[in-house]
Amino acid sequence: MMKSFALATVLALSASLSSAASPKLMLRQNNPDDLMIFNCVDMPEVCTNMCWGAYCRSIGTGLTYDKPDASEKRRRRRAAGCLVSGGNRCSTRKGYDAGYQCDEYPFASTVGRGASDERVNRCVPAGQNSRQGGTINSFYQSAYCGGGPCDFTASFGNPGAAGVSYCNAYATPEDCDVDDDNQVVGPGGTQDPTEDETADDGTDETDPGEEEPTTEDKKLRKIKKRSKTFVGRYRTAVGTVIDVPGGAYIGQRAFYVEPVNATLWAEPAAALMGVQEMVDNLVVKETKVVEEIETWNAPAPAPAV
Ligand SMILES: *[C@@H]1O[C@H](CO)[C@@H](O)[C@H](O)[C@H]1NC(C)=O
């Protein structure tokens, strides 16, 4: 029984805005609490999928966790192209090696708030999908989301980590033109998956938001509008590099997760952990933006053709 419940929530809006923050940037800032940072070192393939959808397909990084029920999540998995004729796209039935799961962006537990309402998918190693699931669910249960619903902004920590593609799309938009058979745009729509479209081998229900958070607070946070064209790259106090469409200000806080037992988090068996078990092995921590590294004033890269 190693996993003690350790979901620490973090609170307290630090009202103190650093004097180093430019007024312009502060106007552009989104809700200061809303950054859900994924550590791409832990989930390179998952980051690749998220960044491809967010940047190369114009889905963006603004997401709303709307607490959909299981049927709605299945419809979204189908819309993302994970549930296809003959079974789950990433299942052994469809010719994939065991140990892969179909990762959707936006997550089935969310709807995007960006320019495109596409849903995309990529087959990723199951352990990486589980780490993403743990990160997302910990955030849903954090003080910021309060169990949901909530609006938040996905943020890709260490976007240049080994094995990560597309997360540097603002710096190098041409990355989006790379041929990548594993990136699939779903058919969209709101139809229920048919029996033929499910694998029923454990690969269909892989969404991070499967278990509803228990926290009572249902307050929907109000989000200010971001500029559509401004993107900044920043370093957090814990050294993570993140790109923030719309910009951040020095002192802006951001959430990330850290495993309680790092060995467990890193080992392949993480793929076999249930969502709650995964969440129990994570602590939600708060950090803040301490340095602006680079900024771009450009629209998101055009979708690849
Ligand atoms: C951490 O996880 C590993 C792998 O499951 C386990 O062998 C070890 O006992 C755990 N450590 C603690 C302190 O619980």
From TrEMBL:
**Signal sequence residues:** 1-20
An example Pfam family from this entry, by short name, is DNase_NucA_NucB
Report keywords, A-Z.
Signal
List compositional bias (Acidic residues) regions by residue number: 193-214
Domain Deoxyribonuclease NucA/NucB, chain residue ranges per copy: 50-143
The keyword Signal belongs to this UniProt entry's keyword annotation: yes
Checking InterPro entries in the record gives: DNase_NucA_NucB
Domain of life assignment: Eukaryota
Where are the stretches annotated Disordered?
A: 178-221
The protein, known as = Deoxyribonuclease NucA/NucB domain-containing protein
Q: Which organism is it from?
A: Podospora australis
